[in-house]
Design goal:
single chain
Length: 151
C-alpha cells in the first residue's frame, strides 16, 4: 500500500507518526505478525485452512482471541504503556468483533501488519483506530523470554 493509500485508509496516520517497515506479503496477517510468525495466517474461520491453536473454538469473538493468545502465555494487562521485560499485544474490535492486532516494540511504539499489505511502525494505537479496525479493546502481555548464552 503506498503511503498516500495508507493515510487515506487510516486518517490518524501521517508521514510523521508512522513508517512502512516491510513490503507487501500475503503470507501472513496481523495476528501471526504479533506472535512473530511470517509464514502463515492466523484466523479462527472454520471454513478456511488458516492456523488456529488447537482446542480454541474457531469463532470470531474477543473471548476466543484472548484464549488463543493465552496459549502463548499472554494475560490481560491493565495498561498499554511500555513495561520493561514484557511483550504487549493490543486487540482491536469493531461491533465487538476482533478485527486487528498490534504488537508493542521496545521503543514503546507499535507494529501492525495491514492485512496482506505492508507492516508499519506507528507511534501509538489511536493512530490506526477508525472505520476499518474499530478501537483497541484488550491489551495482553507476557514476560519476555530471556535467553542466556554461555561461551
Amino acid at each position: 500500500m503506498r503511503q498516500s493509500l495508507i493515510e487515506s485508509k487510516f486518517p490518524n496516520l501521517s508521514e510523521i507518526n508512522y513508517k512502512i517497515t516491510s513490503p507487501y506479503s500475503k503470507n501472513y496477517n496481523c495476528i501471526a505478525w504479533v506472535v512473530g510468525e511470517t509464514d502463515r495466517w492466523w484466523w479462527p474461520d472454520p471454513y478456511y485452512q488458516y492456523y488456529w491453536p488447537y482446542n480454541i473454538p474457531r469463532t470470531n469473538t474477543l473471548d476466543c482471541f484472548i484464549k488463543a493468545f493465552t496459549t502463548l502465555g499472554y494475560k490481560i494487562s491493565t495498561t498499554e504503556k511500555y513495561e520493561k521485560g514484557f511483550e504487549k499485544i493490543a486487540l482491536f474490535a469493531k461491533n465487538n468483533l476482533p478485527t486487528h492486532a498490534a504488537r508493542q516494540l521496545e521503543s514503546g511504539h507499535w507494529t501492525s501488519k495491514l492485512g496482506p499489505q505492508e507492516d508499519i511502525e506507528h507511534f501509538d494505537l489511536k493512530s490506526i483506530e477508525g472505520q476499518d479496525y474499530g478501537k483497541v479493546t484488550v491489551i495482553l502481555k507476557r514476560r519476555k523470554n530471556i535467553t542466556t548464552y554461555y561461551s
